[in-house]
Design brief:
Elements: E1 11-20, E2 23-33, E3 38-42, H1 49-56, E4 64-69, H2 74-83, E5 85-88, H3 100-110, H4 115-128, H5 144-155, E6 162-166, H6 174-189, E7 193-198, H7 201-207, E8 210-215, E9 218-223, H8 225-232, E10 236-241, H9 248-253, E11 260-263, E12 268-272, H10 275-284, E13 291-296, H11 299-307
Parallel strand pairs: 3-7, 3-8, 5-6, 6-7
Antiparallel strand pairs: 1-2, 1-4, 8-9, 10-12, 10-13, 11-12
Helix pairs in contact: 3-4, 5-6, 8-11
The chain binds adenosine-5'-triphosphate.
Membrane topology: Peripheral membrane protein
Protein name: ATP-binding cassette domain-containing protein
Keywords: Antibiotic resistance, ATP-binding, Nucleotide-binding, Transport
């Protein structure tokens, strides 16, 4: 077989494009994912993340560019690639009338595992997903977090080298998200390469070793979360809210107190390495904000700087 990738990237795309009619959803992106890393696509709704993911999952053919996955071409080797991938789609596609265990066993049987092996694999995955005690429960009434963990477990049935996760924690409460992140850390430690799409900057910061910021089908920047923040933001951000509809005049008055000032509909952001000093400057100039907050810069700030928009509007 010519599928041994050695040190070569597990996923490599050049000029990857997806058009739907005359509309370009993914516009010539270059991506390279290495073995063992957690790689992210961060961008708002409609950025082209799911379209990219579906091409990587080898279920949607590219309309331009080249794509190689595990050293193979999805146009000709789709089934071979899919056998070595795990996919966690954006919406759960579990069978709600079956039990947790049955969902896993049936899926394992699709992959051709014998009943005995499928059962053993289901036991292992139930434990991994912390669902052993719910093994015989019907899926439908389970919490959103449990269903997500089961969907991830199902994606691992064929012991994939790469697990693709499309918006893994959308709609989950904070506690359920943390449980899920913990499971994903474990997977990564065990050597599975993770590819994640998200529009949550905290998720990207928590999980991804490297990521691309996507907007309008293009890649706006690439790097580790830390590198991106260092490259595109100051260390700190001073957030100010004033008792006024229009924050723009305050931006003018704050001129010179920070490296960069952004005006949002409900607040002013001052980008500076010393937020407290900037706040003192604001007060010295006679401005009295309703509230002020000095925080560490995040990927949200990177996105705002690169696109002039917020990730979640
Ligand atoms: N099958 C399709 N036919 C036509 N347009 C499509 C199709 N699939 C996606 N699109 C369009 O392509 C663009 C990118 O969609 P995509 O789902 O890839 O974005 P996304 O970043 O994953 O956002 P979301 O999180 O909302 O899924 C959107 O404008 C979407 O409407």
């Amino acid at each position: 077989m010519t599928t041994d990738t050695g040190d070569a990237p597990l996923i490599e795309a050049h000029g990857l494009t997806k058009k739907f009619g005359s509309f370009t959803a993914v516009d010539g992106i270059d991506v390279s994912v290495r073995r063992g890393e957690a790689f992210g696509f961060l961008g708002p709704n409609g950025a082209g993340k799911s379209s990219t993911m579906r091409m990587i999952a080898s279920v949607s053919p590219p309309t331009g560019g080249t794509l190689r996955i595990l050293g193979m071409d999805p146009r000709t080797d789709g089934p071979k690639i899919r056998a070595r991938l795990g996919v966690v789609p954006q919406l759960d596609t579990l069978d709600g009338e079956l039990s947790v265990r049955e969902n896993l066993v049936i899926y394992a049987r699709y992959f051709g595992l014998s009943r005995k092996v499928a059962n053993a694999r289901a036991d292992e995955l139930l434990e991994f997903a912390q669902l052993t005690e719910r093994a015989n429960s019907v899926v439908e009434p389970l919490s959103g977090g449990m269903k997500r963990r089961l969907t991830i477990a199902r994606g691992l049935v064929n012991e994939p080298e790469i697990l693709l996760l499309d918006e893994p924690t959308t709609g989950l409460d904070p506690q359920a998200r943390h449980v899920l992140w913990d499971r994903l850390f474990r997977l990564k430690r065990s050597g599975v390469t993770l590819v994640i799409t998200t529009h949550y900057m905290d998720e990207a910061e928590q999980l991804c070793d490297r990521l691309v910021v996507m907007d309008g089908g293009r890649i706006a920047a690439e790097g580790s979360p830390r590198e991106l923040i260092e490259r595109y933001s100051t260390r700190e951000v001073l957030e100010l809210r004033f008792d006024d509809e229009d924050h723009a005049p305050y931006a003018e008055k704050a001129e010179g107190l920070a490296d960069r000032v952004e005006v949002l509909p409900d607040r002013l952001l001052l980008y500076t390495d010393d937020g407290e000093k900037a706040l003192a400057g604001i007060q010295k100039r006679g401005m009295n904000p309703l509230s002020s907050l000095v925080r560490r810069a995040s990927l949200e700030d990177v996105f705002l700087h690169l696109t002039g928009r917020r990730l979640i509007d």
